[in-house]
Design a protein that fits this description.
Number of strands: 23
Structural class: alpha/beta
Strand content: 15-25%
Distance between the termini: 52 Å
Radius of gyration: 24 Å
Number of helices: 12
Length: 391
């Protein structure tokens, strides 16, 4: 049995086959769907798993429960990777009562046509299981309208909050594993999934302020115990859109001319003292990783060619994705190239003025066909200007 603490067990599963989370975000190391069982006078399941994994999930559940009934299931979050097994749980445990809030049940009716045996809770409500008591904290828009968290003593069942990509390789509590691979995956998970909702995350953290938490049991990734303070601090920083003094340079290129300009900019920034520089070809690197690093670093320089009298497609997509994250406090510089019709620089300018609204650094560089001594110097100037701003 996978015991976390007295009366609390891990009953989740791993998905090592899915390649894209939500059909969007790469999963090179898989993902876990975490669920938990509280074994008290009343038994209580916290969240379920994606329906494709119901049978191994049921085996995990029965390993702890045996032949005893399941009294409650708490639904902290209605996304189907966590609620997908609810209807089947009802078939195996027909008397189980489902705990959630009003918005949970509105969604539950639509997803699974479940309308009976429901126990509605509001923020601050509690339910006694015996020796342990559940206390409910509503955290709307972290990152769906119905999201909530459940406190059981000093254990926080946090839903998707504090989660990360990556399957669990044997161990499930952080102190039993090497967590090095999970930290950047937590930043990527936050920026890709939760990133737009910094204000609701801050409101949730305020609700939890002063609460003693020994374990954070998220729905994805490790159970946090040894690193609880680090995890909460990371979410606090990310939700305030704070960043390190580093630089992301991402570019589109067809024949290498825009890429050469990016190299000149990067070298100038490095020579001016910026140590944290990452570079991405937007057509080669999945945007998931670029978005992650834009959350990590304060400076961003983008460049792309004109294509079909518009902006190069992959750069257009990336800027659209970034505009949906509601990022604040970033510095932006940009450059573009064209063969016969100038448009890229004007389009990036429009994106920033209308959507991104980042602070402009340096002068945009426009390159006709290929670098000249003049545009080479302008690229160097752009790199130095960003370095001065960051440092």
């Amino acid at each position: 049995m996978k015991k976390i603490s007295e009366r609390i067990y891990y009953v989740g599963v791993n998905d090592r086959n899915k390649t894209l989370f939500e059909g969007l975000w790469p999963l090179p190391n898989g993902v876990s769907y975490n669920a938990y069982l509280i074994d008290d006078e009343k038994t209580c399941l916290i969240d379920t798993v994606e329906v494709d994994f119901f049978m191994p999930f049921l085996e995990n559940l029965r390993e702890v429960l045996g032949d005893r009934p399941l009294d409650y299931v708490v639904v902290n979050h209605m996304e189907p990777d966590h609620s997908g097994s609810l209807a089947l749980i009802r078939k195996y445990y027909p008397q189980v009562q489902v705990i959630g809030n009003k918005k949970t049940f509105d969604m539950m009716k639509g997803f699974y046509q479940l309308e009976d045996g429901l126990v509605e809770v509001k923020n601050g409500d509690s339910i006694e299981l015996g020796a342990l008591t559940l206390n409910f904290v509503l955290t709307p828009m972290v990152h769906w309208p119905e999201t909530m968290m459940t406190l059981c003593g000093t254990t926080l069942f946090s839903g998707d909050a504090f989660g990360c990509f990556g399957a669990l390789n044997g161990a499930f509590v952080d102190e039993q594993m090497n967590c090095d691979t999970y930290w950047l995956e937590m930043v990527r998970y936050y920026s890709n999934i939760v990133g737009k909702y910094g204000t609701p995350v801050q409101m949730a953290l305020k609700k939890l302020a002063g609460v003693k938490v020994d374990y954070i049991c998220s729905t994805h990734g490790p159970v946090w115990h040894e690193h609880v303070e680090r995890v909460i601090a990371l979410y606090d920083r990310l939700s305030k859109y704070e960043a390190e003094p580093g630089l992301v340079i991402c570019y589109g290129t067809m024949y290498g001319n825009t890429e050469r300009a990016a190299e000149v900019i990067a070298r100038a920034a490095a020579e001016a003292g910026v140590k944290n520089i990452v570079m991405y070809n937007v057509s080669k690197t999945h945007h998931s990783y670029i978005i992650r690093d834009v959350f990590r670093y304060k400076g961003l320089i983008v460049g792309a060619p004109t294509y079909n009298t518009g902006l190069y497609h992959e750069m257009n997509v990336l800027l659209d994705e970034l505009s949906q994250k509601d990022l604040k406090g970033r510095y932006l510089g940009w450059f573009g190239s064209y063969g016969w019709a100038s448009k890229a620089v004007a389009e990036i300018t429009r994106w920033n003025e209308e959507k991104l609204k980042f602070e402009t650094v340096g002068q945009p560089v426009e390159i006709k066909q290929s670098l000249t001594p003049e545009t080479y110097a302008q690229c160097e100037s752009l790199g130095r200007a960003m370095a001065e701003k960051l440092l």
